[in-house]
Write a structure and sequence with these properties.
The protein is of the alpha+beta class. It has ten helices and 30 strands. It has an eight-stranded antiparallel beta barrel with strand order 23-24-25-26-27-28-29-30. Strands 17-16-15-14-22-21-20 form a seven-stranded antiparallel beta sheet, with no helix packed on it. Helix 1 runs antiparallel to helix 10 and helix 2 crosses helix 6.
Length: 518
């Protein structure tokens, strides 16, 4: 007999009621308890144009859930003596630059490498994510990186480039495509016949859902132009992802030891424990260990979470980018376990800047409750997290708590920080106007304007972009528009921190990108 409340199904259906209309894309959802399915439903349309309903066997992009499959393949190769997670990346991929400190395969798999995200690097080099580009473009972008975000092992920042490189290593060692290795070692033996790597958006396939975004005029198809690999290119169905999640609980492919390693949180150089393992997100939610991963791609969201000590699992796959899959997975768990939402922590609305650093976030009051916003996106808080309020996003190592003096205390990857309020209508100490270059990455920037606002124009061998900038502080500017390819609707997508001879660009996944005055 299930432990779920009697109204479990009705309450889950209510969470997805906005995606049940006759002209709406939707989602598929399943909940399991000790290996038994206790809830499943489908919502909305797989294809709006042809009124095709979502189904259990509708094929949908699962995005970054791909990363757990990539890491499992790496661990399988390690078990066969074909590589070691302690290997430096360049042992397998000579094109990857050696930067300030050595980077290992384990750093890549745990998002602790310090490498910059190659997708954001492409966007901030003027190449839209919607413009067609191939894997060689990704290699070239990685090869031109001139600095790390941080010392490897000292922090965690989400990095698609790490899993791009791991998938390249898999193909190189096995002498086969990622898809062929995936089929041979994982999806074939598990009977996951509808799960594979779909390299390009726009490919034709039976039962493949269309993927949508929401615009002012209504729903619209959304496709990226880049080729996707082991960092986020897989497709699957509800039925297949239930099989995969149950394999994580009771392995038929891979070993329990492998999954234990994947679900063990990283430990930073300072001794603090993080919220990411090897290809899997790890956390303690409402006192229970939660391990899983989500995904965000063009017009798609997904989440697979296991409460590993409770035998409880949630699978969500959506063919639109409006389903808050990570938060909804948590709400389903709240219903099942009967947990009440903790009292909100009083974080005052406003923008806050890291003292002695360039990072900025904003607190917005929505219905009287604090919401978190920065260059990585927008979302609610988990107010019940140990140490304070944690943004309710899967990939973040930031926890916040208010201070009596109006500042906010933060802990990022185990390191204390203080954030101070930013004044509205700030003016910089001087205009940023001038010409700047980053020669290593073939980037040229021209800035015009005064001490309050201006225009930022960038050119590179990959493309060009133009965006407004506004002053955030005496020595800090907001770059307003580039990066909307991945996270649309944000008030800023990067900051520009003034230096003695130029500025440094900092986004969610790119830090210290230095430009010198020409």
């Amino acid at each position: 007999m299930t432990k779920a409340p009697a109204d479990f199904a009705a309450r889950i259906d209510a969470l997805f009621q906005d995606f049940t209309g006759p002209d709406s894309p939707g989602a598929v959802v399943a909940v399991t308890e000790n290996g038994r399915e206790i809830f499943a439903n489908t919502y909305g349309l797989a294809n709006i144009n042809n009124s095709v309903p979502m189904g259990r066997k509708t094929i949908i992009r699962i995005g970054s859930q791909t990363k757990q499959f990539t890491v499992l393949l790496i661990l399988m190769l390690e078990a066969e003596g074909k590589l070691n997670l302690s290997d430096e990346v360049q042992k397998h991929l000579p094109y990857v630059p050696r930067l300030e400190q050595p980077v290992t395969l384990e750093h890549l798999a745990s998002n602790t490498s310090g490498f910059r995200d190659h997708l954001e690097a492409m966007i901030f080099a003027g190449l839209s994510i919607f413009t067609p580009s191939d894997r060689q473009t990704g290699r070239d972008v990685i090869a031109r990186q001139d600095a790390l975000n941080f010392k490897p092992g000292s922090a965690m920042t989400y990095c698609n480039a790490g899993f791009f490189m791991l998938s390249e290593i898999i193909e190189q060692i096995e002498g086969a495509t990622f898809n062929e290795v995936l089929r041979k070692r994982i999806t074939g033996p598990l009977g996951m016949d509808d799960t594979s790597l779909l390299i390009r958006d726009g490919s034709a396939m039976k039962r493949l859902a269309a993927h949508y975004t929401k615009r002012e005029e209504g729903w619209a198809n959304l496709n990226w132009g880049l080729d996707l690999g082991g960092e986020g290119g897989m497709i699957s169905t509800l039925d297949d992802m239930i099989v995969w999640q149950q394999n994580l609980f009771a392995p038929k492919v891979g070993t329990a030891e492998m999954y234990e390693r994947m679900g063990t949180p990283c430990v930073f150089d300072n001794g603090a424990t993080g919220f990411y393992g090897l290809g899997l997100v790890t956390d303690v939610y409402r006192g229970r260990r939660a391990v899983g991963h989500g995904g965000t791609v063009a017009g798609g969201k997904s989440e697979s979470t296991r409460f590993v000590d409770d035998g409880f699992g949630v699978v969500i796959i959506a063919n639109n980018d409006q389903v808050a899959s990570f938060a909804l997975g948590r709400r389903i768990a709240d219903i099942y376990f009967g947990d009440k939402a903790p009292a909100p922590i009083a974080l005052a609305p406003g923008r806050y800047r890291q003292e002695g650093g360039p990072d900025v976030f904003e607190i917005v009051a929505r219905d009287g409750v604090a919401t978190f916003l920065n260059a990585g996106g927008v979302g609610g808080f988990d107010f019940g997290h140990a140490g304070g309020a944690k943004p309710e996003r899967a990939i973040t190592d930031l926890v916040l708590s208010p201070r009596a003096d109006g500042k906010v205390e933060g802990v990022f990857c185990g390191t204390p920080r203080i954030y101070a309020p930013l004044q509205a209508d700030a003016a910089a100490a001087r205009p940023l106007a001038g010409r700047y270059v980053n020669k290593a990455q073939d980037l040229e920037v021209e800035v015009t304007g005064d001490a309050s606002k201006g225009e930022f124009r960038l050119r590179s061998g990959l493309g060009a972009m133009s965006a407004p900038i506004v002053a955030a502080d005496a020595d800090l500017w907001f770059l307003l528009q580039p990066g909307t390819d991945m996270r649309p609707g944000l008030p800023w997508n990067a900051t520009l921190a003034v230096t003695a001879d130029g500025f440094e660009m900092n986004s969610d996944r790119i830090k210290k990108l230095a430009f010198k005055r020409a």
